[in-house]
Amino acid sequence: MNAQQSIIRANNVNDTISIGRLALYDLKQSVKGVGHSFTRPLHWKKKDFTTLGTVIIGAYALSTIDDESSAFFVRNEQHVPNLFQEVGTRFGSPQVYFIANASLYGFGLFTRNEKLRKTSVLIISSSFTSGIIQSLSKTAFGRARPGNGYNNNEFRFWSNKAKFHSFPSGHTVLSVTMAHAIAKQFDNTWSKIGVYSLGAIAPISRLFSGAHWLTDVGIGAVLSIVIVDSIDKFLFKTKAYNYTKKEKQISWNFTFSGKGIGFIGTF
């Protein structure tokens, strides 16, 4: 722990540090978190590349049912409550996402709640990182969206057209980033399930509306989880905030059997 962090910690206890200095400290931790996440691949080891390979294989396997699953979701959209679709569309939008996190951070800052501040820093740094990656990926891959007369393997690399910006799902990236960052602050399994359930509304609604393929949502979720876990681990190791213990990470395992292929997350 460096001298500045020691001062922050001591002043937090006495509630004498200014709001401005707390905000500046949090901003610095956010920038450090973003820097860490972008440079982390330079330090990957064999198991990290193995995990990447597993994700790629899993995504390819999942893509084999993209056309069928998309048709299934779109066909059944009429049975989905309008409220569910509306909530999913709004919750995954950048505007609502920004307002929600700004409110969370503002409350944590002015009440000097370190746990809320840390959670917001984790959300901000993670969403900034995942947002840049997903924005670049949408243009770079140029994957066609469902419902435009194309199947799931149609690509127009570096396209600036919205109908070729399907991969990955931006709504999924934002909603899962926030849900995972918040869920990590709870020890109770049922609380985690509740948070993840809310975070799943946006991704599922995008499938029913025919805006994305199943792999767009799946890879968007994996991307968000990996980035949040990486930055959370970084904040813990650098003792940026007053951790009482290390939060458990989700353990992802690739499964293959005669009945199917998929990922299992354990927390």
From TrEMBL:
Residues 118-232 form the Phosphatidic acid phosphatase type 2/haloperoxidase domain. Pfam families: PAP2. It comes from Jejuia spongiicola. It comes from the Bacteria. This is Phosphatase PAP2 family protein.
